[in-house]
Write a structure and sequence with these properties.
With 597 residues, the protein is of the alpha+beta class. The protein has two domains: 401 residues, Porin; 85 residues, Ubiquitin-like (UB roll) (Roll). The chain is built from seven helices and 29 strands. The relative contact order is 0.12.
Length: 597
């Protein structure tokens, strides 16, 4: 006889406490496959939507550095001093003028300027030392000069030209909308907040620093969806610097298709997905991002996501909306349960770049999200609704602190939300069981670093973790398995309310090869993955073990073709933590391939 929620009515008021507990334990057993499926449902192959949008190879093979966004004039000699001139000048002291960044005492110490006898070439060396100090601190065109002067009382003047930007930028482009947008960005960044002059009007300029120029250029790229590069040159007035930005058309529509074998037998092992990004549909720097995927059993797993964002103002804010849906239906060993489910969500967000440089970036994202979750099986349905408020800070930094190039990624995410169960039977089960309904907090931390070791070698390490303040709905749990987790285990393996995941990879990038007029970059790696989860923050009567550990080791091959084609293949085996609970395998081969268009 088939049972459903209409034929299975329970009066909770008539149940004694022991009977309620017994019922909760019995129904929790029926919910176990549901929980497992929900862990997989919000993502494909263990990857988050952000990871899916980066493609199957989120880190470019063989490359961990970025190029400059602006051309800066080199330091030149201020005067054509005759190096053969042996004229000795008695000097009683020095005076520095024009400086606002560094104090006179600090500048004279850098120049080692003291009373004494000097040649002209030695004075020039002092000026170059001060110029070097400014350049080392990111002042792109700042310069110290020894101007022509009449030395009085033995005091020599050193003049500092710090290089203020002109009140207007020169934009070279045929796109008038882009030119207007770039002018607004320049004015917002260069002119002080207190100045209310319109773009193009006279305003106080800022000194040309790498941080300032990078922000202007990178915001111009984001807000116009064009290729933007800059150059600095002497301004029309003494002491001022002109920024010229060249904006060229960029492809409006880009896409990618990919396949992977990270699924499970019950929903289809092979996944295919398509990703399309359309830029400046409304000619204002807006972006439409579409992502869809399905398994080789289309009726068992499919998902869709649409994201739209647009710049607001000229200082870097973007507002956006996101809608997503995932559906699953369990087959094979779970067919008799007639288990299926769907998740739908709608989110609104605001994003702001706190730091925007060629080699570093930090973004703040604030969002609100609401959704529906529903899981059905032979016995009953479990419909829920939820909402979340989310604050996320993420960043990227390229450095050479250890004498070799390195790239760092990091992030922190805090979520406050609430889950509501909308059916009497699962409400009863939850209230007498794990208490997943109600308000919750969740904190997620993540970080990674790829460190160059010299030659073609590099070392990659990553660590992520999550902690909730209560027992969480399966949709919000942290899981270990999958191609972006412990690769020796299936996607969704070992999930919990708290957990951590770490990865170490030793990588070797081969010299790129030209094959049939195509440049192939190849990288191999040996890796070790390990993670643990606490299944429930507050386990039910401690009836079962509440902690799981998964570890694996293996080798990986990555091949890319000018970022157009990508292939990632790995073999991984468990490392002392037993076979996969979901499919019984001790090892697995993962294949992920993508093609951009």
């Amino acid at each position: 006889m088939r049972l459903n929620r209409n034929s299975m009515h329970i009066n909770s008021k008539k149940l004694s406490k022991p009977n309620r507990l017994t019922l909760a334990l019995m129904m929790s057993a029926l919910l176990a496959p549901c929980a497992m499926a929900q862990t997989v449902a919000p993502s494909m192959g263990g990857a988050s939507v952000d990871e899916l949008q980066r493609g199957v190879n989120p880190r470019q093979v063989g490359g961990i550095s970025s190029g400059p966004v602006v051309t800066v004039p080199a330091i030149s000699d201020q005067e054509n001093f005759d190096k053969a001139d042996t004229t000795i000048l008695p000097i009683a002291g020095f005076r520095v003028v024009g400086q606002t960044v560094f104090g006179e005492k600090q500048l004279l110490e850098v120049a080692q300027a003291k009373a004494g006898e000097y040649r002209f070439s030695q004075l020039q060396a002092m000026a170059l030392a001060i110029t070097g100090l400014y350049r080392d601190h990111g002042y792109l065109v700042a310069q110290a000069v020894i101007p022509a002067q009449e030395v009085k009382d033995g005091i020599v003047q050193i003049r500092i030209i710090e290089g203020k930007l002109e009140p207007a930028v020169t934009v070279v482009t045929e796109n008038k909308d882009a030119e207007e947008a770039i002018q607004k960005i320049y004015h917002a960044v260069v002119c002080p907040k207190s100045v209310t002059a319109a773009p193009g009007d006279q305003c106080l300029g800022s000194i040309a620093t790498d941080t300032l120029i990078d922000r202007i250029v990178l915001l111009a790229r984001e807000n116009t969806a064009m290729k933007v590069f800059g150059s600095l040159s002497a301004g029309s007035e003494s002491g001022y610097t002109r920024l010229t930005l060249n904006a060229q058309p960029e492809r409006r529509v880009m896409g990618e298709v990919s396949v992977d074998n990270s699924g499970g037998a019950s929903t289809g092992r092979w996944h295919a997905q398509g990703h399309i990004v359309a830029n400046s549909l409304l000619k204002q720097g807006d972006t439409l991002d579409l992502l869809a995927g399905l398994s080789n059993k289309p009726s068992s797993f499919k998902f869709f996501q649409a994201d739209y964002s647009t710049p607001v103002g000229a200082e870097g804010w973007r507002l956006g909306a996101n809608v997503a849906q995932t559906q699953y239906s369990l087959g094979d060993a779970f067919s008799s349960l007639q288990q299926s489910g769907v998740s739908r969500s709608l989110a609104f967000y605001a994003r702001y770049p706190l730091l925007l440089k060629a080699n570093a970036r930090t973004d703040l994202t604030l969002s609100v999200k609401g959704g529906q979750l529903r899981d059905d099986n032979l016995a009953f349905s479990n419909p829920r609704t939820y909402w979340e408020s989310i604050a996320d800070v993420s960043g990227r930094l390229e450095d050479s602190w250890l004498g070799r190039p390195a790239i760092n990624l990091w992030g922190a995410r805090w979520e406050y939300g609430s889950v509501r169960i909308n059916d009497a039977v699962p409400q009863l089960i939850d209230s007498n069981g794990l208490h997943t309904a109600g308000a919750f907090n969740r904190l997620t931390l993540r970080g990674s670093r790829e460190q160059g070791l010299g030659g073609q070698w590099s070392l990659f390490g990553a660590l992520s973790g999550m902690a909730g303040d209560k027992n969480l709905d399966p949709y919000f749990k942290f899981s270990l398995g999958g191609p972006y987790g412990v690769r020796a285990y299936a996607s969704g393996e070992a999930s919990g309310d708290e957990g951590a995941l770490g990865t170490v990879e030793l990588r070797y990038a081969f010299t790129p090869l030209n094959v049939f007029s195509r440049t192939l970059s190849t990288r191999v790696a040996v890796f070790y993955d390990r993670g643990w989860v606490k299944n429930s923050r507050y386990p039910l009567n401690n009836l079962v073990s509440n902690t799981e550990v998964r570890a694996g080791t293996g080798v990986q091959l990555e091949i890319s073709d000018n970022n157009q084609l990508g292939l990632r293949v790995f073999w991984a085996t468990q490392a002392g933590t037993g076979a996969s609970r979901s499919d019984g395998a001790n090892s697995r081969v993962g294949i992920l391939a993508n093609a951009a268009f």
